[in-house]
Amino acid sequence: MTLFEDPFFTFRFADDRRIARFHLEGVEAGIRVAVYQIDPGTGERRRLLAEAAVGDGGWVDLSEPIMVGAGDAFIAVPQNL
Known about the structure:
The protein is an all-beta fold. It is built from no helices and six strands. The chain has one domain (about 10-65, about 75-80). The strands form two sheets. The protein has a four-stranded antiparallel sheet, with no helix packed on it. Strands 2-5 form a two-stranded antiparallel sheet.
């Protein structure tokens, strides 16, 4: 039994990255996902970066890549949660 589980997936980066695709473990294909930039220190949502659907095997392909700077973070929030 899990005591606590976040209803979203957090991605943090030590280097600058161009993100066109990411994986969400355990999320079914077809589920819509909202991707938000967050404050890396507080986890507070800053702005919506993208929306997409989960594909086969839990992969999310973004229509336009997002740029993430060193030390930045984003969350992916499945819309069924």
